[in-house]
Design brief:
Shape: globular
Largest sheet: 6 strands, mixed
Number of strands: 8
Distance between the termini: 16 Å
Length: 266
């Protein structure tokens, strides 16, 4: 089958998923690349186009072995109409568990035919100088493997005569899915001794949880602890003092230091 355009559709608070998806799209070299960034609130409300002769690369990060609730809600707006799809999840060097099969189920339910899937590694949201977790991932080697994956996808598609006859790709995972992150009041905070009130953090938040109130307070019910604001603050004024997060970061850095490699499924 012929592909006219490649569409990247993703939820990527810290940009790691976006980097991998862009590299895969580069490898496909299939027509114009169009982007549907569903990370921020304004992007989530954008009009979703129809897909015609497109290849759609769909991606999201993994939170505790599942997809973030916000990613599920936003990616579920995509409607495939028998469009071939590539599934991508990014995890912080522990395990992706049920996230990829969850993404497959969303894609199939919404009319896509997944022809390939993948799990890449990205720097963990909880990483800190004292608890490094997959720092710098995806790195140059990851991006090269993503680009090579894109080339394999196009080779696969070139052998398909009618996408409607294709069986969706098999990916690992369990049903019912494991429980995701527990509900909590943990959230990122602002150290006003360091804050210069530049406001950089506000537009970085995928849920609009940071108030423009001079103290940059966070709505704990809306915060998903993606740490986009923490990583993006130029003054290191955003932080989290959650004991749960600190404990998890310590455990991850001590037990999952050995770099894992991307996994692909075609």
């Amino acid at each position: 089958m012929q592909i006219s355009n490649t569409v990247t559709a993703y939820f990527s608070p810290t940009g790691t998923t976006q980097k991998i998806i862009n590299a895969i799209a580069k490898g496909t070299d299939a027509g114009q690349v169009k982007s549907l960034d569903l990370t921020l609130p304004d992007g989530a409300s954008q009009e979703i186009p129809d897909f015609n002769d497109d290849l759609v690369i769909i991606g999201a990060p993994v939170y505790a072995g599942r997809l973030p609730k916000e990613a599920v809600e936003r990616l579920s707006k995509l409607k495939g109409n028998n469009t071939p799809a590539v599934l991508v999840v990014l995890y912080g060097n522990r395990e992706f568990e049920d996230a990829l099969i969850e993404l497959k189920d969303i894609a199939v339910e919404n009319g896509f035919i997944p022809v390939a899937g993948s799990a890449f590694i990205g720097e963990h949201s909880y990483t800190a100088p004292e608890t490094p977790i997959a720092v710098g991932r995806p790195d140059a080697d990851d991006l090269a493997k993503a680009e090579a994956f894109g080339k394999e996808i196009i080779k696969k598609l070139s052998s398909i005569e009618d996408i409607k006859n294709e069986t969706p790709v098999e990916v690992p995972g369990n049903k019912p899915y494991k429980d995701g992150l527990p509900v909590s009041d943990d959230c990122a905070k602002t150290n006003m001794d360091l804050c210069t009130q530049c406001g950089t953090c506000i537009p970085l938040c995928p849920t609009g949880a940071i108030a423009d109130d001079g103290a940059y307070t966070t709505d704990s019910a809306a915060c998903i602890l993606c740490c986009a604001c923490v990583k993006g603050c130029p003054e290191d004024a955003r932080y989290t003092d959650s004991e749960r997060v600190k404990k998890a970061a310590k455990w991850l850095s001590e037990n999952f230091a050995e770099p894992k490699q991307p996994e692909i499924f075609i």
